[in-house]
Write a structure and sequence with these properties.
4 strands; about 100 residues; single chain; about 25% strand; alpha+beta; Glutaredoxin; globular
Length: about 100
């Protein structure tokens, strides 16, 4: 799964649906969420792209979206924020949440 910077972020916002995982390398729940996101990205590749933003490497993006805790996931549809959720989420719950928001 690709870790993107601010410039790449703007390119991804042209996609129909993008889930952005705001994370930090030192965050335990973020590490637990990694494999879940990999699996969801594979299972939902025709519906949503999933990318990651390291809040320590891209503090400008974290500030722009008011990220106060990690992990925080924001779903964008055609560049507009459609949904946001924080904390670890099991795969089935994440898929169900995304399906509702898409």
């Amino acid at each position: 799964m690709e870790i993107i910077n601010a410039q790449q972020f703007n390119e991804y916002m042209k996609e129909d649906a993008v889930l952005v995982d705001f994370f930090a390398t030192w965050c335990g729940p973020c590490k637990m969420l990694g494999p879940v996101l990999e699996s969801v990205a594979d299972k939902m590749k025709d519906k949503v792209k999933i990318v990651k933003v390291d809040v320590d490497q891209s503090p400008d993006l974290a500030r722009q979206f008011g990220i106060m805790s990690v992990p925080t996931m924001i779903l964008f549809k055609k560049g507009q924020q459609a949904a946001a959720f924080s904390g670890y989420m099991p795969e089935a719950q994440l898929i169900a949440t995304l399906e509702k928001s898409l």
